[in-house]
Write a sequence for this structure.
């Protein structure tokens, strides 16, 4: 579909509401997905870091216990 002006493009042949609503919902979904993924990645990294520090403390305590 060829548009002769910017207004014609924005009007989308009378279907502007549905077209722009679909674009908006798609973009909102993508943004939510990206933000959620970043938050979950950060949460997992924090969990792994805490777990590794805990494991190091346990190993250190076991070595000290074995030395007694």
């Amino acid at each position: 579909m060829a548009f002769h002006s910017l207004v014609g493009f924005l009007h989308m042949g009378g279907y502007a509401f549905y077209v722009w609503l679909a674009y908006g919902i798609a973009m909102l979904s993508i943004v939510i997905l990206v933000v959620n993924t970043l938050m979950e990645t950060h949460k997992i990294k924090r969990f792994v870091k805490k777990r590794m520090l805990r494991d190091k403390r346990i190993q250190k305590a076991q070595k000290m216990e074995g030395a007694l």
Notes: The longest helix spans residues 16-67.
